[in-house]
Amino acid sequence: MIVFDLKCEGQGHVFEAWFGSSADYVDQQARGLLTCPICGDAQVVKAVMAPAVAAKGNSRAVAVQDAPTPDVPVAISAGDAAKMRAMVDALAQAQKKALEGSTWVGRGFAEQARAMHYGEQANSSIHGEVAPAEAKALMEEGVPVAPLPFPVIPPEAKN
Predict the structure, then answer these.
(1) Percentage helix, strand, coil, to 5, in the chain?
(2) What three-state secondary structure class fits 99?
(3) What is the pLDDT of residues 51-103, one digit of tens each?
(4) Is the dihedral of CA 24, 26, 153, 102 positive or negative?
(5) Which of 27, 51, 103, 109 has the fewest CB atoms below 10 angstroms from its CB?
(6) CA distance 83 to 59
(7) DSSP-derived pairing of the beta strands 2-8 and 44-46
(8) Are 46 and 5 in contact (CB under 8 A)?
């Protein structure tokens, strides 16, 4: 797992996102799957991050006078990292359980969600893919949809 600080270009919101690898980040960005969780902006880029560099053994600790600003990443302890991993794992398990009775509809998600919303199709639990702009349009129409915290591997892509 790798964590990046991301930033939306519209309003400059900075947020963290976890990926399986750097290649996963590049793939999700290329497919338009990254959006700002605060404002929904689809123009998301990596934010500048300070590397976590261990202090030299002969250096003195210096007290930090100012609280970090939201745009500056803060180093976390190994214990906090373990807690974060546990929370991410718990969230992934919750998503897995929520999707157990759901049907993968791929790129047909928006069409089927609208059809259910307008009574043209029986309601059922579905999940799939939509572009950020389409997801925003669904929400503006009042179609009850929500983004998943983690990407889903389509059934046909699983090994």
Answers:
(1) 35, 15, 55
(2) coil
(3) 655 556 555 555 545 555 556 566 677 788 888 888 888 888 888 888 888 99
(4) positive
(5) 51
(6) 29
(7) antiparallel
(8) yes
What the block records as the tokens of 116 is 């259910």
DSSP codes, 24-91: HHHHHHHTT----TTT--S-EEEPP-----PPPTTPPP----SPPPTTS-----HHHHHHHHHHHHHH
43 by DSSP, 3-state: which?
coil
C-alpha distances in angstroms, 54 versus 6, 64, 71, 155?
Answer: 23, 16, 21, 43
What is the spatial distance between Cα 16 and Cα 6, in angstroms, rounded to a whole number? 6
pLDDT digit string (tens) for 112-143?
999 999 999 999 999 998 888 898 999 999 99
The answer to whether the beta carbons of residues 38 and 147 sit under 8 Å apart is: no
Give the max Cα distance, the chain: 71
Give the C-alpha separation, 125 to 98, whole Å. Answer: 9
The length of the chain in residues reads: 159
- Which pLDDT score, from 0 to 100, does residue 74 have? 61
